[in-house]
Amino acid sequence: GSEKDEPFSRGWKQRVSVKDSHRERWSDGTALFTSTEGIIMHAMERMGFNAQRRRINGEKDLLLIHGESAVGVASFGVRNSGTQAKTSLSVRLSRGLDAEPFEALLDDVKTTLTEALTGLNRP
């Protein structure tokens, strides 16, 4: 892998997708985006990580939260597919971190986003 992938080498990763997503509902500046950012940040802080949002040029609607702790690094990303009606969530953990709380968080966020992005009502 490339240098920047080093901390995650052989760690845990998982990706899930919200299918049939109204992708226009997932954009930076919306209440949904802001509340999701808060949920992920607080959850990671409770797990003992120092969490911060990372911004990447050209990916305005990417929500990427990076967390660091004494035991490792974690990242949680939410982004729209470029081509399909879906929004994906991905978690990457460095080796040795407990994946269980992240699986639970991934599940919670996916449930919230599925309702918001596929429901008939606009959020």
Written overview of the protein:
This protein is of the alpha+beta class. The protein has a single domain (3-118), classed as 2-Layer Sandwich (TATA-Binding Protein), CATH 3.30.310. It contains 2 helices and 5 strands, in the order βαββββα. A 5-stranded antiparallel beta sheet has the order 1-5-4-3-2, covered by helices on one side. A hairpin with a 5-residue loop joins strand 4 (72-80) and strand 5 (86-93). Helix 1 (31-46) runs antiparallel to helix 2 (100-118). The model has no long low-confidence stretch (mean pLDDT 92).
Number of helices: 2
CATH class category = Alpha Beta
Radius of gyration: 14 Å
Mind summarizing the main beta sheet?
5 strands, antiparallel
At CATH's second level, what is the architecture? 2-Layer Sandwich
Question: Which features does this protein show?
Answer:
alpha+beta, TATA-Binding Protein, 28% helix, five-stranded antiparallel beta sheet, single chain
